[in-house]
Amino acid sequence: MAVTILRSIAELTELPGPVALAIGVFDGVHFGHQAVIGAAKDHAAQHGGTAAVLTFDPHPARVLRPENAPRLLCSARHQMRILERFGVTHTVVCAFDAAFAATPAADFVRALAASCRPLGFISVGYSWRFGARGAGDIHLLMDAGEKLGFAVYGVPPVCIDGAVVSSTAIREAVGRGDFEKASRLLGRAYSVLGDVVRGRQLGRQIGVPTANVAVEAEQLPPPGVYAVRVRIDDAWRDGIANLGHRPTVAAHGSSLALEAHLFDFAGDLYGREIEVGFVRHLREERKFNGLDSLKDQIARDISAAREILRANGAQPR
Asked: pTM here?
């Protein structure tokens, strides 16, 4: 079932109460985020209510600190797909702008309580700050909960390998191509989402058709050739992908592109939404002396990727 997306706090009146809210930015929906969301789901299940994720678009840093805004691990659309897989049925996406950022923390909480029928629970990361000038914290939430009649849980940091799980740590891992660490922190394979668009169809001409993906994520691994798994609808397929500037066939200075070749697949993907999960780096991108040399190398890449994916076993979530 697709996630039902609400576009304002006022629309929380539509949800059967008591409403349990998991609040945060949730870029990447990593293990720490999953703990916050899981707390709200558990409370709703125990009290016969409705769990909902409340998040913000754009990322608050885009408004508050645009010069230091992070590269996003997943687009808003991709985030909804991931939340759906974790059993989230309702999401409130608050438009974050300068006016919203100036909302006093107490007013934000009162608006939540006034819109829910009733508000039963809020879960957040323990150190999460909110409201004008970041004045809101877990203590303000708890005080408000005592006055307005809802429970609050500040989820402690989730640690893996002795370090706190964070979107920043995942961005750094992806940026250097460390998919093993990224997947440990995410609880799933690192992946990107996008629609398949028409390219020059050179892959088809050399017998290796590729899907050109209009990638929505901003944090990408280094350019290169990768063993990947590609999700189409609800099925994952093995393949290889090239992330780069295609120096053998494209003009110098061409934009970064992601092209994926799916093994043993003959369907038409144009206009379809697909998800590309990165498994292993195979080699750096380089320029070849013509299409024949490129075709020979792709054959070797495919052979290597098949072996890696066979050994890798489990499919991404």
From this structure: 0.92
